[in-house]
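Fill in residues.
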């Protein structure tokens, strides 16, 4: 026990819990924190110019470091600016501890300047939201927040601390958080049932989501897929956030299509599906028929979040537990249960699938190579130019969905599974800044961010933070002068003006945005390229460099 102020207690608990960075943009109610950090070497404060960059940088850092990231926001208006990125973190399950100052409690009855009910604002998109009312509770709240953020289902928490509580002194327990070991497997009987269903399958498939990567269970999933000879299918681009299966593996299949009728047709060939760490299903635009899982498919569903099991699709076997021990034990049970005939059939399936997948990857690369001569560059031509210079240990952050289309995975160009990050929440401004957080967590790995022009403008201020702290990220801005995804969706909805090629409010031309000048004004070296060879050369050089750099590339418009 020690006598200290509320803000000093917060810093002590964070430091003793292994937290290294605070991500923030301060205001008056955060000044006790800023003052305390002046002489505190235990934590490094990273300043962002606006709350979108602050939150998204922390998001990237949390995912790459596999540890909670701590954010400090200004009172009500700062939290309001951050809400889009808080929504992303909620949808992704990002372990964030978001703190904010609150007005002095002695002013509360007056409803003073900047005061607001922040807990009610944050609660829908957090696991836990609280305003601390006693200085003695500050260390308890911080410990609980860290543990809640990291306990499956992981996600953000919010803690508001009034100004007077931050400055008040009391005797407190300042020990750091000590989360429990979370490697808990599902019940053995459920695992045996799942293994039996999978072993008997004539044509099994595997659906995989981001939480397999986040649980460090990719190797275990590979073992299960190899035993079954089953293709592994990622979520559609609209919800596919992390890479949970090696892109070059013979059983790596094309991701799911976007819309429910196509998904149902794609899955109709399977008699059994294992869904691992994936939300079944996250649809974007309603289509008839709405059902995505064929009635003929028997479903085995594994997740560390019980809410996901059977949420939208009835599961024959539900497995609730940490994916790594669950998949490891499932592979062992398959070894014990599969007959020689089943093993032979699985090997034959695997060989057939491998040939199919190799042919599709080769056809995709040929198509992309054929489009390299188009000007402006086509999406495929641009992505192939980047694919040719990807280092083995690269981390890729994507927020340019109509350009990227998971090309690095579909073509087999991505040679690691940990270094892939894509949008899941769809509050824009995330990608450019997520890449900064990823590089901060992985200083020895090159980071490539492929960002659409529309997305970039939601969080462009993050370039200043990359410059200030010399965080070397290569930002490729795919500039097609429009919100292309919205045009595609308008046509998907069969809207009459869209079908005629007429759109309002979806073009970014007149004036055109000069991303090179914008980047340079924020201290980032920048250039504009228009041909594939120059793009490859510039990106190769930048990925090997030690400073942030932005490359603007014109991309063929849809209309």
């Amino acid at each position: 026990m020690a006598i200290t102020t509320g803000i000093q207690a917060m810093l002590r608990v964070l430091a003793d819990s292994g937290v290294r960075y605070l991500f923030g943009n301060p205001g008056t109610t955060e000044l006790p924190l800023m003052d305390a950090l002046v002489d505190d070497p235990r934590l490094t404060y990273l300043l962002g110019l606006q709350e979108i960059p602050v939150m998204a940088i922390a998001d990237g850092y949390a995912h790459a470091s596999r540890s909670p990231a701590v954010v400090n926001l200004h009172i009500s208006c700062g939290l309001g600016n951050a809400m889009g990125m808080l929504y992303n973190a909620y949808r992704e399950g990002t372990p964030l501890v978001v703190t904010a100052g609150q007005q002095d409690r002695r002013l509360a009855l007056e409803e003073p300047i900047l005061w607001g009910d922040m807990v009610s604002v944050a609660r829908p998109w957090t696991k836990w939201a609280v305003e601390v009312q006693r200085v003695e509770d500050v260390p308890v709240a911080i410990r609980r927040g860290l543990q809640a953020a990291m306990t499956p289902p992981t996600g953000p928490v919010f803690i508001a601390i009034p100004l007077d509580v931050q400055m008040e002194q009391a005797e407190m327990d300042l020990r750091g958080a000590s989360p429990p070991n979370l490697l808990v497997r599902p019940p053995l009987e459920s695992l045996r049932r799942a293994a039996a269903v999978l072993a008997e399958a004539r044509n099994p498939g595997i659906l995989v989501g981001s939480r397999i990567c986040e649980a460090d269970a990719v190797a275990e999933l590979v073992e299960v897929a190899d035993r079954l000879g089953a293709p592994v299918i990622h979520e559609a681009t609209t919800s596919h956030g992390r890479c949970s299966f090696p892109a070059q593996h013979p059983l790596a299949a094309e991701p799911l299509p976007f819309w429910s009728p196509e998904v149902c047709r794609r899955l109709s060939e399977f008699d059994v599906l294992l869904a691992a760490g994936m939300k079944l299903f996250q649809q974007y635009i309603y289509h008839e028929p709405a059902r995505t899982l064929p009635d003929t498919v028997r479903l085995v569903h594994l997740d560390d979040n019980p809410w996901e099991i059977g949420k939208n699709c009835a599961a024959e076997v539900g497995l609730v537990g940490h994916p790594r021990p669950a998949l490891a034990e499932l592979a062992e049970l398959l070894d014990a249960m599969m007959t020689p005939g089943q093993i032979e059939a699985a090997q034959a399936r695997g060989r057939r699938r491998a040939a199919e997948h190799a042919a599709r990857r080769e056809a995709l690369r040929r198509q992309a190579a054929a489009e390299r001569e188009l000007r402006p560059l086509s999406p495929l031509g641009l992505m192939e130019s980047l694919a040719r210079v990807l280092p083995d240990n690269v981390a890729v952050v994507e927020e340019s969905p109509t350009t990227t289309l998971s090309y690095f995975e579909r073509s087999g160009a991505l040679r690691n599974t940990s270094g892939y990050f894509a949008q899941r929440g769809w509050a824009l401004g995330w990608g450019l800044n997520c890449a900064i957080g990823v590089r901060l967590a992985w200083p020895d790995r090159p980071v490539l961010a492929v960002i659409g022009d529309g997305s970039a403008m939601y969080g462009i201020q993050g370039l200043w933070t990359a410059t200030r702290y010399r965080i070397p990220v290569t930002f490729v801005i795919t500039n097609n002068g429009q919100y292309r995804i919205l045009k595609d969706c308008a046509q998907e909805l069969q809207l009459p003006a869209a079908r005629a090629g007429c759109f309002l409010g979806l073009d970014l031309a007149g004036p055109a945005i000069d991303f090179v000048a914008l980047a340079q004004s924020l201290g980032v070296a920048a250039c504009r390229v228009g041909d594939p060879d120059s793009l490859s050369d510039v990106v190769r050089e930048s990925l090997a460099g030690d400073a942030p750099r932005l490359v603007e590339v014109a991309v063929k418009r849809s209309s």
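Residues 374-554 form a domain with the Rossmann fold fold (CATH 3.40.50.970).
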